[in-house]
Amino acid sequence: MEVSVRVPMDRVAVLIGKRGATRKSLEKAANVALEIDSESGDISISWDPEKTDPVKMMKFPEIVKAVGRGMSPQKAIKLLEDDCFFKLIDMREWTGKQYLQQKRMRGRLIGSDGKIRRFIEQNSGCEMAVYGSTIVLIGDEEAIPLASHAVERILQGAEHGTVIKALERERREQKLASRRLDYIQEKGDTAIAGFDELVPGLADARSRERRYKNAQVDPEDEEAVNEMMELADDETIQYAEE
Prior knowledge:
Shape: extended
Radius of gyration: 31 Å
Oligomer: single chain
Structural class: alpha+beta
């Protein structure tokens, strides 16, 4: 099978590496073959479906795109991990095609000496690259949303201070939510396992209790009550005074 991806001409050399070292390492990591047209930037990716992991086949074009949009090959290769994902943001959705506006926005996203980009990376857990009119993010399912929100706020014109505070707050909330979920799961599992061990047959008793509850009649349902009170053919009611 074969897939084609085009990368900017000035990124072709990065994808090839010194004496083809980068290309060879990428091919080996995913068990694919690359054919690179250094004059057009077209990259052909081919592989044997019977020998190559289907997840790697699906993700490898994203690795090439990430390198083509400014990400280093060493960081882009993380996409081969199962819990690592790729997101491409096009700033033209906010800036239009105006070159000067895009240039200004790149400066805001990177910050002085790269401080803003590093802050987003450190507080989201994402790898981030800004190239031309695009922003590439690589991270897990929790990191991608954090970084995306920060980038989009900057693209919308928010001040850096506001973006920093919002990212820090979202990161704290995410950690607290994760801890609560872990605690609930751990507590629930321990409680069930502990009682089942201390009281043999407890699980069966709970199951019977649920069955009994399901068999009860709603007293507000007059039709159901009347149906329940009907006597069978072999049943009678006798009244007696004490």
